[in-house]
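Appendix B. Chain record.
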Amino acid sequence: MIPKMLCRLFALLLVAVGCGLAQVTVPDTPAGHTLQAWLAAFNSGDRARIETYVKTVDQSQSVDGMTSFRNQTGGFELLSIESSEPLHIRFRVKEKGGPTTALGNLLVKDGQPPTVGTFGLRALPPGAVLENVSMDAAERKKVIDGVDIDLKEYYVEPAAAQQMADALKAHESKGDYDAISDGDAFAARLTNDMQEVSHDRHLRVDFSPFKMPPLTEPTPEDEARFHHQMEHDNCAFDKVEILPNNIGYVKFDGFMDASFCGPTVVAAMGFVVHADAIIFDLQENGGGQPAMVTLIASYLFDQPTRRT
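Structure tokens predicted for this chain:
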């Protein structure tokens, strides 16, 4: 039984969403209530409220990750409810700090309060065409077969690739995926099953609910917007400081465009150049450009070094 205190905390998370959602009617369902709780906590920017949300509603989230994302976007304005079921809701939001709109997908587990089963949020590129995809047996098999091929062709450790592919096939044979019809939920389950074998947190399966427009060369306007966003996000460098005992601390959440973000790297590394040791915090780092990896690594080795 959920303690009454948790129920009261969940209720508090719903407070103060009203004015931001006045133009959109959120369904009176477990999924709708959870969406309101997420928006209230996220938009508040208050670490304590975000921590309460993570503890009571979605323990798969990171408080630091949500806080950093909130700082990047400025919060979200709810634009529309795309579809709604008691435990499943799709919605569209726009970031308050920029022009980006995103499609959200939320599946919840009923309870007091409801808790998050799967949560996905994806930026919508211009020209994207939304699709209502249901994962039937044929689609699930197609995805698993595709993951199998890609793992064996591209994954850095062939033995681990084979083990992951075998694990997915074993789950499929046992019917472990038969009840999954949502794309986000299926992608999350495949990711979890692969990571249980490889322990590789950078390897994941993602689901896209829209068709991407044909690839074209970025226009000068596109480049300018991208550079503006990188400037806004400080090239993903979140914190640089000197800790007690002359320990440098550098937290950055992505390896951005080295040709543009080089001066930011120079400034960050220059700040900790006289530290006796440096902690690089990559817990929220989602990867990025290899050239940026090389640039940062160049500060750590006095000669060309190759990882084998």
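Further analysis of this model is presented in Appendix C.
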